[in-house]
Amino acid sequence: MTATDSEPEPVRQDASRFRAVLGMVGDKWSLLVVCNLEEGPRRFSELKRSVDGISQRMLTATLRNLERDGILTRTVHNVMPPHVSYALTPMGSTLREATLPLLEWSAEHLALIDDARAQYDTRADTRPPSPSGSTPDSR
Amino acid sequence: MTATDSEPEPVRQDASRFRAVLGMVGDKWSLLVVCNLEEGPRRFSELKRSVDGISQRMLTATLRNLERDGILTRTVHNVMPPHVSYALTPMGSTLREATLPLLEWSAEHLALIDDARAQYDTRADTRPPSPSGSTPDSR
DNA sequence: CGGTATCCAACTGGATACTG
DNA sequence: CAGTATCCAGTTGGATACCG
Predict the structure, then answer these.
(1) Are the C-beta atoms of residues A61 and A19 closer than 8 Å to each other?
(2) Best mutation site among B5, B9, B21 for testing chain A: the one with the most A CBs within 10 Å?
């Protein structure tokens, strides 16, 4: 109790956790890789094939980050040709389980979101025209 | 059943859902805004103060996207001075609930992850030196 | 008060070529 | 096979100034 906590709300606490979790799995590929390791260890090229669309560069970077965070392990087998396998740690497994509710939510609401977007865009189309430049930046 | 599904695994299905959910809440601010609306409707400037660190530009953009996706509603009160309030929709509330397990996971494992990173970085420091360029890119 | 417009620095991620 | 190196396009997001 340092007497300076003017905001005892839990939202404050959430902020740093959201940063942490988004910094770890908020990127384009991490969760996909984690899911592909769920059934057991896999090799680099297996992952590259099954994640589909990922480049070597991104797969390597994603695996390194997840390894650094203790989500998975990297095992090098010194044979010819080279053989490297990746496997989830116990922590990695619990992470994946923690993402399941969000995944279920997504499955349930994807259609509703599409709907909401279509309605929003339709309403936006009926807005009064701008003086000169129409599309505002479009970024 | 187009007979061409060579991969009946559910991972395939997850991919598009992860994209969808990350496209919606995987950015820097969305989840923070959603959390701040949990206790009830709030005004633009209240949100700007309580999210702390967010710029007008990003708060506006974040709110627009969440509104478009049906996560929250925007209500304009035509008084002087202007008054706009934002509130979670039922869908927004369920979204927030779906993120709770991930938040709890984060709270439980933050220290472990820091630990894993420190160990990884220590091991990386003991690696044999590269021929010329040491830090690989570091962009 | 609640935005919009503009500019710009930093980061993400894809394509390609090369290495042990 | 499993990376690493380089280059480059596209996007994110902050600072600032201005508007209804």
Answers:
(1) no
(2) B21
Q: How far is the CA of B126 from the C1' of D17 (A)?
A: 50
Look up tokens 């709300």; give the residue: A9
Chain B CB contacts of A15 under 8 Å are 32, 52
DSSP per position, chain A: --S------HHHHHHHHHHHHHHHH-SSSHHHHHHHTTTS-EEHHHHHHHH-S--HHHHHHHHHHHHHTTSEEEEEE--SS-EEEEEE-HHHHHHHHHHHHHHHHHHHHHHHHHHHHHHHHHHHHTSPPPSS--S----
Q: Give the pairing of strands A83-88 and B72-77.
A: unpaired
Question: Residue B5 — very low, low, confident or very high, per pLDDT cuts 50/70/90?
Answer: low
pLDDT tens digits along A76-116? 998 888 899 999 999 999 999 999 999 999 999 999 999 99
Please tell me the pTM assigned to this model.
Answer: 0.86
What totals of helices (H) and strands (E) does chain B contain, helices first? 5, 3
The verdict on a CB contact (< 8 Å) between A14 and B24 is no
Q: How far is A94 from chain B (nearest CA, A)?
A: 8
Does the beta carbon of B118 lie under 8 angstroms from any beta carbon of chain A? Answer: no
CB contact under 8 A, B102 and A104: no
- Judged by a CB distance cut-off of 8 A, whether residue B49 touches chain A is no
Q: Which tens digits make up the pLDDT trace of B47-99?
A: 999 999 999 999 999 999 999 999 999 999 988 889 999 999 999 999 999 99
A113 contacts in chain B (CB < 8 Å): 20, 24, 69-70, 91
> How far is residue B75 from each of residues A54, A112, A135, B90, measured CA to CA in Å?
41, 21, 24, 16
